[in-house]
UniProtKB/TrEMBL annotation:
Residues 4-110 form the Gamma-glutamylcyclotransferase AIG2-like domain. Belongs to the gamma-glutamylcyclotransferase family. It comes from Dryoscopus gambensis. Pfam families: GGACT (PF06094). The lineage of its organism: Eukaryota, Metazoa, Chordata, Craniata, Vertebrata. This is Gamma-glutamylaminecyclotransferase. One of its GO terms (molecular function) is gamma-glutamylaminecyclotransferase activity. CDD domains: GGCT_like (cd06661).
Length: 156
């Protein structure tokens, strides 16, 4: 099993969460909530209002999201879904655990004394330069007050 941190449309209550609970695509078990240890710019970009975490450490906000344990089949699905490695790149990032629901209470989460886990995150280093000038968010909600609702793939 691998740990994945999701910050956009794959979170609970968001437009693509259905993929995280579709066992035909693999297994994904919600473990808890967290935020990036380093700051990153989280922007909403493109004509489909897609959330992107730009791989510019030290800029932006500590991005909030959810931590999942996923099997190899789900990891492969997510790579394909996220257009990895062209649109997004899957990299390891340090995630500060905010709330843990995983088995054994806080055991696994606090294996590191500081409550920090390494998780795979889909961020991007391949983006148009003007995206750096977009507003930065610390958390994503497709129906947020930004007014930039995500456009589902089926509707494009």
């Amino acid at each position: 099993m691998a740990r994945v941190f999701v910050y956009g449309t794959l979170k609970k209550g968001q437009p693509n969460y259905k993929h995280m609970i579709n066992t035909a695509k693999g297994l994904a078990k919600f473990q808890g909530r967290g935020r990036t240890v380093e700051k990153y710019p989280l922007v909403i970009a493109g004509k489909y209002n897609i959330p992107y975490m730009l791989n510019i450490p030290g800029t932006g906000h500590h991005v909030a999201g959810e931590i999942y344990s996923v099997d190899e089949q789900m990891l492969q699905f997510l790579d394909e879904f996220e257009g990895c490695p062209d649109m997004y790149q899957r990299t390891l990032m340090r995630i500060q655990v905010v709330e843990w629901e995983g088995k054994g209470g806080m055991g696994e989460a606090w294996a590191a004394a500081d409550g920090v886990l390494e998780c795979f995150v889909y961020s991007t280093a391949t983006y148009p330069p003007e995206w750096v000038g977009l507003p930065y968010y610390d958390s994503y909600d497709s129906s947020g007050k930004h007014g930039l609702s995500y456009v589902l793939r089926e509707s494009r």
